[in-house]
Amino acid sequence: MANVTIAIPTFRRPRGLERLLTALAQLETTARVFVLVADNDAEKREGYDLCQSLRKSGYRWPLEAIIVPARGIAQTRNALAGRALAYPEAQFVAMLDDDEWPCAQWLDAFLRVQYDTGADALHGTVISVFEKVAPAWALHCKGLAHLRKPTGRIAMIEGSSNILLTRECLEDLPKPCFDPAFGLTGGEDKDFFVRLRDQGAHFAWVDEAVAYAYVPESRTNWRWVLQRAYRTGNSDMRVFLKHPQRAAAFAFEVTKIGGALLLSPFLLAILGPVPNRRAEVLCKLFRAAGKIAAFFGRHYNEYAVTHGV
After folding, report:
1. Could you report the per-residue pLDDT of 152-201, keeping only the tens digit for each?
2. Helix, strand or coil for residue 102?
3. What's the sign of the alpha-carbon dihedral 161, 32, 16, 179?
4. How far apart are CA 288 and CA 256, in angstroms?
5. Using a CB cutoff of 8 Å and minimum separation of 24, what contacts does 191-194 make?
6. Which residues pair with residue 4 across a beta bridge?
7. pTM to 2 decimal places
8. What are the chain's domains?
9. Under DSSP, is residue 53 helix (H, G, I), strand (E, B) or coil?
10. I need a surface site. Which of 2, 21, 63, 171 has the fewest CB within 10 A?
11. How far is the C-alpha of 58 from the C-alpha of 10, rounded, in Å?
């Protein structure tokens, strides 16, 4: 029987956190589960207080909440990793965000594929659930579109929404596991997986490990989508520059950026009337702009703003 710590970072989303904890209490699993919540709001402590209330009312799983005073998603993930490793019986650490919630079979689907593939880190499907009906073009944009892949081995994991890690992933990685320099910008998760890959870790995707992600209306607009594309490009390039690269890889990145800058005006002129294609072209252009900004040391602090409650 597997022992799994489910680690949840939270910041000023008490309703989302309650929805997630309710879904976890309804899991259909044979695993031994421990739920760990790290509240990154030392002032309001809404997530921490919610956990204390659920514990008193007889929550299904052992539940612990900690306060992380240092602001930042990387700092919060590091606190979760450190606390999870303090439990000697924990074989696996799953991570979900506080705007997500899993289906009932989520955990056992992860564990089954981990057993079959021997993967060190696994990512599950993420289905977007919109507060209001989203425009069709939004369904094709990164950060809003569903994340799905066939179950099986994959070369790389890009993000930390809906993941399962073996204990060794956290134990063997030099500390801190998540780089605090990415605390407010995001990208700490991609850097984490790049470091795991470089240490020889194997990855897998689990299509049956479904989590749902709440998308508030404040995200389904051009401004948020393009800011997200800019941030993604910015943080991706910062991760790229952080790690030693071959000259060929560097040249390839420069070529992609140059191509996006040169071709986007022509593609917009041709494809602009089609909303889905216009979104694709604009997102590539803004990602390229974010990468260029990273070359000059500029960062975009996406996590300074919270969407949803």
Report:
1. 999 999 999 999 999 999 999 999 999 999 998 999 999 999 999 999 99
2. strand
3. negative
4. 8
5. 191/239, 191/242, 192/77, 192/160, 193/121, 193/156, 193/157, 193/158, 194/239, 194/243
6. 33, 92
7. 0.91
8. 3-219 (3.90.550.10), 222-304 (no CATH)
9. helix
10. 171
11. 21
